[in-house]
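Q: Give me the 3D complex with nickel (II) ion.
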Amino acid sequence: MPKVSITRRERFSAAHKLWVNDWTEEKNLSTFGGCANPNWHGHNYELFVTVEGEVNPVTGFVVNLKDVSKILKTKVVNKLDHKNLNLDVDFLQNKMTTTEVLAVAIWEEIVSDINKLDCKLTSVKIKETENNFVEYKGA
Ligand code: NI
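A: Here is the predicted complex, encoded as structure tokens.
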């Protein structure tokens, strides 16, 4: 059977701040720019989760995307949307809230539930701004 990849997009809006406590204010501002704004700032994030599997001969689906979406809503979007990523999110405690770190943390939150469906998680991609994307493939 041919293997096919499918992707579900979810969106969330959240605040964060990139800051290293051991550094001076100047170094934080010059490294992280607007993302080091002392009183927080926000992004409208887009999350793309890709799974791969064989096409079921009866349904014609690799997996029902409603099931993927339900996992993403419960495990990720409901925890991040309209929240402060630095303060409010259990799985981001004590982590830098860069898009890179977020992609790995989201992968780890969803991989076991996704892989219980008839598919395998292959990519977590996050778009933070129009021009910046990050992708984690689990390695
Ligand atoms: Ni930012």
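A quick observation: The chain has one domain: 3-136.
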